[in-house]
Amino acid sequence: MNILLTGGCGFIGSMLSQRLLKEGHNLTVVDSMWFGNFLQPHENLKIIQEDIRNVDNVPMAGIDVVLHLANVANDPCSELNPKLSWEVNTLATMQLVEKAIDNNVKQFVYASSGSVYGVKEEERVTEELSLLPISDYNKTKMISERILLSYQDQITIQCIRPATVCGCSPRMRLDLSVNMLTMQALSRQKITVFGGDQVRPNIHIKDMVEVYLHFIKLGKKAPGIYNAGFENLSIMDIAKKVVEYVPAEIVVSPSNDPRSYRLCSDKILATGFKPQYGVETGIKEVIEAYKSGALKDDENCYNIKAMKKLANLDRSA
User: Which end of the chain is less packed: N or C, by CB atoms within 10 Å?
Assistant: First the structure.
């Protein structure tokens, strides 16, 4: 297949790019490269450094599937520049799907977020529950989903609501809960837990990548919205798992983020998807990468720290 992947140089995108090429697809990656380019040259890979808001510069002719991962990721980054977040996360999404339809693209797979549910006390947060997004980031994802679904009579739309992702990637992130707590234990021998009782869903990056491949293979057989998270753990439970592998003190501090939500992913499991990895795998990967010297506690691994260094964000995403 001919696949267009936005955000293909990112944390998930760089891993997904490798898998798509391994599967024999022709891949076009469009990425702003805010955090660099970690992709290796490949005969079936074309990389375009471009702001996805410049939709005229996004090649769509001959594309079979769009995987849309590019976004201003997480709450702090969205709060840094809300206008940028709405333009990149929502406006550009609408422009991309319209261009995809104009070019007879068959399928549009969108990386939404499990955080669109807001605070939920239900034991099983399914796709049918109401959305109560708290932050601008969550709101951009919710509105983007609604925009995309309004086009579902013209193109196969699949909106994936991922849990918090853990594990290692060429473009590493250490601002995600499992990775962050593991790095704290390794570099400081102390883990700071804010609150601790909040329950969050998790997914290993390798499973996240396989989710996207799974939907490419399903094609038009499985349109709609799907949760993707397979371990609902409290922040304290994650910290305790980390210290099983890395001796560290756990320090609890107050938190102003009360969100708990427990994703139920029965719907995606019913399509035949089977997760293979988990939080403990992610913890072990981070430990191994750190001890081997391949991973350092670098500012570029924290999205908000890296974005604060970027100039002219309003003009260059």
Answer: N
